[in-house]
Amino acid sequence: MVTIKDVAQDAGVSVGTVSKVLNNIYVTAVYKEKVEQSIKRLGYQVNTYARGLKAQRTNTVAIIVPDLISPFFALLVNYVEQALAEINYKLLICNSHCKKEKEFAYINMAKQNKVDGLICVTYSNSDEYLSDDLPIISIDRHFKSKVCCVASDNYYGGKIAAEKLIETGCKNIIYIRNGSTISSETLKRGQGFMDACKKTGIDYCAMEFGEETTLEKGGETEHKVCRFLEECMNHDKFVYDGIFASSDSLGQIIIEKLKQMGLNIPMDVQVIGYDGLRALNVGAYQLSSIKQPVKDMAFTCVNHLMKLINKETIEDLTILPVSFVDGGTTR
Amino acid sequence: MVTIKDVAQDAGVSVGTVSKVLNNIYVTAVYKEKVEQSIKRLGYQVNTYARGLKAQRTNTVAIIVPDLISPFFALLVNYVEQALAEINYKLLICNSHCKKEKEFAYINMAKQNKVDGLICVTYSNSDEYLSDDLPIISIDRHFKSKVCCVASDNYYGGKIAAEKLIETGCKNIIYIRNGSTISSETLKRGQGFMDACKKTGIDYCAMEFGEETTLEKGGETEHKVCRFLEECMNHDKFVYDGIFASSDSLGQIIIEKLKQMGLNIPMDVQVIGYDGLRALNVGAYQLSSIKQPVKDMAFTCVNHLMKLINKETIEDLTILPVSFVDGGTTR
DNA sequence: CTGAAAGCGCTTACAG
DNA sequence: CTGAAAGCGCTTACAG
């Protein structure tokens, strides 16, 4: 393995000089040229571990997400990686499976100076585990301590979901959500929805299921939701004619259950999800939904994180615009 | 930040002794106890970078995949992370976007001793860039040099896809694929399909589109495939009554196009994909498909990689079983 | 079995 | 501006 020493010897300079050109610190042009040639000739690459040890800078960022089974998180991680790769950073992926202990362990790892920064979608109250010197950007989630947050416009998303259902003739609509209830931007989905309902005076209601943030085929939350939907049948008629689900995944579960119950979507019941995912990410929208600007969110996170790493200040909360997309489950 | 030195001082032993308990090397019980208490009390965690520098062991593995937009790759990475987390390894994610240069760069990074091993799904002939001392497990792809490979039973998958179409009454079927044509296990999907067709004497054909491995909404491959499908209309009748697509994503594109052309799936045309993905990963199968054992593949990769890291030998090629799943696009 | 010491490959004040 | 040297936090032969 070729080291900085070999390069220095080959170029006839000191290791300090090589280090300088490596780090873009000014060196006389002739020296710089020599060093660069030697680097090329020897195929030298800096040893991240040596650099990380000495410089407290690793060019690595970690992201904590529940998992990559949720397509939204997979997309988010995909674009975060892309944004980081453009500026020569690496991405360590940490799946918490929504487990407090795993989130703690990962945040701890990050704190112990193993990464330059952290992007996280967490679901537990891990405030006390944060520290001031680790740059962190949170997605959706508020921490008690001052952690900068990036989110989509959840309130507006809930609002236009309700409006869409009302406009298209619904008379009795419901918001169904699952996941953690800790302080999070995502709670505004329900608020926006309900405020819009109140304003028009339509009948509405809201239901919550389970703490599970990521849904599983055959999981408990799915089971509860399905049972609830069955209970909403009244003399062969479904009580609600419009449903706003807190995510596309939940919406998908609801749609499949309703179809199985013999209902027609969107004629009997309209369904709107949240996320805006396409079928296998290449096809049409899987269902009508509020689309999150996932790429924009990812790039914003990275952009903000870099500012934090460079000790610049950024706004506490950045909200990015959403839009309604038609996936055939609305009229 | 608390270091090994602090622990040593606190426990009243030398740093070497602390290092030993850290690495599970035998130390007298009394010492061990003391050290462990100090570690706990001080909240010590080893510095990965110091260890990586000295020990040539980083407990980090990298995975190269085209991207996480393809749900199959996202699932694969998800389970690889899970398998690694169980044995205390971290995962660095490297998206190549199928670009040769990015694959090279990542393999190079890995070679320069930045990770303990590499799992990769590559799409270029990067043999010359491999080295003997970096443990690598490949998924699907053969390298000229001896790199161990894990794959699903592509040949059998293609075979049962053809058989299913034939059994259900198809008279003229086609295999449509996209992606790289370099030596890969995935090429066997077509072979299995065609061998099964030959055996029964049915009319069949095969089409290839583009080098793009990951499909994009509105991308070139999608465009070509759609145009081809249009050309298959003969007097308001579609020439083929059964299609086997090389992936679920491609199958999804095909299905949407056929529907748009006014055809009924599966009555007019049956479609079978490859991967076995569910709608948003929580719903029903998105289409009829050959299901890859993605979790098993991920765990096998990690298992094999660990053996390689420990200098054990493993088989050159591991093939895992597939099965047909009904997603409503077959009769 | 334990401790003292060298050294992994870098970066960074500090002289010159 | 450049070089010599210290030191980042570990691991690992090597004495004892």
Descriptive terms for the model:
Rossmann fold, DNA-binding, 331 residues, alpha/beta, homodimer, 11 helices
Number of domains of chain A: 3
Instruction: Name the assembly state.
Output: homodimer
Uncertain runs of chain A: none
Biggest interface goes to: A-B, 53 and 53 residues
Order of secondary-structure elements of chain A: HHHHEHEHEEEHEHEHEEEHEEHEE
Q: Considering the protein shown, what is the CATH homologous superfamily of the largest domain in chain A?
A: Response regulator
User: How many beta strands in the DSSP annotation of chain A?
Assistant: 14
CATH architecture of the largest domain in chain A: 3-Layer(aba) Sandwich
Beta-strand level of the residues of chain A, as a percent range?
15-25%
Termini gap of chain A: 64 Å
Overall pLDDT confidence of chain A: 92
Radius of gyration of chain A: 25 Å
How many helices of chain A? The count is 11
Shape of chain A: elongated
Q: How much helicity do the residues of chain A have?
A: 40-55%
Provide the spatial order of strands within the biggest beta sheet of chain A: 2-1-3-4-5-13
